[in-house]
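README: folding subset

This subset contains proteins for which both the sequence and a predicted structure token string are available. Records are stored as plain text. Below is the entry for tRNA threonylcarbamoyladenosine biosynthesis protein TsaE (147 residues), shown exactly as it appears on disk.
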Amino acid sequence: MRLPDAAATDAFGRRLAALVHVGDVVTLSGPLGAGKTSIARGLLSALGLPGEAPSPSFAIVQPYDPPETRIPVLHVDLYRIDDPSDLDELGLDDARWDAVLLVEWPEHAGERAWPDALQLTLSVADDGGRVLTADVPPGWEDRWSRI
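--- output ---
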């Protein structure tokens, strides 16, 4: 999927917000500046978050709960995680069942983390736009067709 500019990246996140459910995991991969946080901000905004969501780079996990958002969301940035075993302390595997888990830099969690996740990967095109590819698991196939 082609996302020609920042507005299109934000709009994609907003469309995605209409499809997520509590218990879903959505992963966002790509190089620095590729638009991972822009998609997350669009999703959070569409779920009702007033203002711009901060990047969870330093907090690692930024929770959002009603009434701040329509449904609970855990916005996670694993960039600073060096060892997948460090994730045990965050309790994400249990917490995901009570929220949407939106994970930037999921590769830091190891290859076997969240096999049922909607895996989104962004790359920067030569013209400055973004190219989004998706690995769509069975639980997302019907929903993905509506994006």
